[in-house]
Model the fold of this input.
Amino acid sequence: MDESDCIFCQIVDGEIPSHTVYEDDAVMAFLDANPLAEGHTLIIPKDHYSTMDEMPDAVGAAIGRALTQLAPVVENSVGANASTIGINNGEDAGQEIPHVHAHVIPRTPDDHGGSIHSIFGGTPEIGDDELTELAQDIETRI
Ligand code: AMP
Ligand code: ZN
Done:
C-alpha cells in the first residue's frame, strides 16, 4: 500500500479529521471511529509501518510508553477499572488497516466481552517436550 493511501497517515498529516487525545514526536492517539466500547482509543506510530516487525526499537518503545501512560487515563475517563489492550498484527490476525495501531478498549463487568482467550475456540494439544523445543527455537532466533 502506498502511504498516501493510508487512512492513518492521512490522520497524522491532518488530511482526515480525528478525535485526537495525545501526540508526541513519535506517537499519536485518537478515538476509534467505530468504538467497541466508550473510550476505545487507538495508539499509532506517526511514521508508516505495516506491522510490528517493521518498527525500529525506539518507535516500539514510544508505543509502549504511550500505552502505559494512556491506558489508565482512558479507563478513568469512562469510569472503567480495566481495559483490553491488543494489536491485530498482520492480515491473518484480523488487521484491516495496515498501519500499526494498538487498541485500548475500556472494560466493565457488564460489557459481555470476553478475554483475549475467547478469540480462540480452545487450546491445541501441545506437550511439554514440544513447549521446551519451541522455547529453545524461539530463544535462538532472537
Ligand atoms: P484493525 O482491525 O485492528 O485494523 O482495526 C482498525 C480500526 O480502525 C477499527 O477499529 C476501526 O473502527 C478504526 N478506524 C477506521 N477508520 C478510522 C478513522 N478514520 N478514525 C478512527 N478510527 C478508524
Ligand atoms: Zn500509514
Q: What stands out?
A: The chain has a mean pLDDT of 96. Residues 57-77 form the longest helix (21 residues).
